[in-house]
Amino acid sequence: xxxxxxxxxxxxxxxxxxxxxxxxxxxxxxxxxxxxxxxxxxxxxxxxxxxxxxxxxxxxxxxxxxxxxxxxxxxxxxxxxxxxxxxxxxxxxxxxxxxxxxxxxxxxxxxxxxxxxxxxxxxxxxxxxxxxxxxxxxxxxxxxxxxxxxxxxxxxxxxxxxxxxxxxxxxxxxxxxxxxxxxxxxxxxxxxxxxxxxxxxxxxxxxxxxxxxxxxxxxxxxxxxxxxxxxxxxxxxxxxxxxxxxxxxxxxxxxxxxxxxxxxxxxxxxxxxxxxxxxxxxxxxxxxxxxxxxxxxxxxxxxxxxxxxxxxxxxxxxxxxxxxxxxxxxxxxxxxxxxxxx
Length: 342
Ligand SMILES: *Cc1c(COP(=O)(O)O)cnc(C)c1O
Hints:
Elements: E1 2-3, H1 14-22, H2 34-47, E2 51-55, H3 58-69, E3 74-79, H4 83-86, H5 91-96, E4 99-103, H6 112-118, E5 128-135, H7 148-160, E6 164-169, H8 172-179, H9 183-187, E7 192-196, E8 207-211, H10 213-225, H11 234-246, H12 251-266, E9 271-274, E10 281-286, H13 292-301, E11 304-305, E12 307-310, E13 313-317, H14 324-341
Parallel strand pairs: 1-11, 3-4, 3-5, 5-6, 6-7
Antiparallel strand pairs: 2-8, 7-8, 9-10, 10-13, 12-13
Helix pairs in contact: 1-11, 2-11, 3-10, 8-12, 12-14
């Protein structure tokens, strides 16, 4: 199978498995796991932030961030396409009692103007604007990138209005290999950032939340109450650490292949439109006569797995198990299906 459903399907490489086997371990709830401590310290330093916390998932790191930056009856400003709004089971309401204030923009991004357009006075009958969440890259927006300058402008806007800025950086490394920026170029503007290690980076499990020491101290408590306090989890942190040392630069290949795929799809009559490809995500809209369900089951018959992202919208994600050969194969099959279905 050529599995383009997500970059979360990536498997631990040989070097990563060796690093896991060799990892020194201890009980992380007591702060005694050397591999976890080393990973948290490494990432905090790379971000030039004070502290980091290893968690089982990016949903947990985002949810802890929302919790540590807000009080019930506060408001969280985000794009309507964002993961924190769409794909975390409404956790902002469940865990933190905050209201979402949604911004519409099809590439998934926010701007200072858009943030200011939804701000309102803090009456006793309104939730209090408190937190802004940006997603870099924007998944449903088509893998779009915020540059450090865009983030700096959003940060100035947040400062002006006493808002806190959190970044869901699930795929931040896919953006950085594209722009040539460093982690710190982006994180210097943030109160906190969540980074996923189990997507394109290829670790089996884990995300980190990075921020100020006082916030991460709170976050550690929230991680425990969310049920995320793990014991010899250094075996996972060692995999993540290996990924950060050895598997970041190759993300540029994933981005490149996604661009090749997007270009190929945009020439086919089967697609009404293809969102501009910025990183490793390709979002394509089928012509109205073809549903995503039909297209996806046809793909499956030919050994390709993709995700439905709407009645006529599909998503393909490139990752380390998609080489030039399998990409070419996928394009050939989609070309054939286009001739058949359109
Ligand atoms: C995958 C993802 C997350 C975190 O997902 P988990 O599966 O909980 O690790 C957060 N934000 C975005 C944009 C994602 O794509």
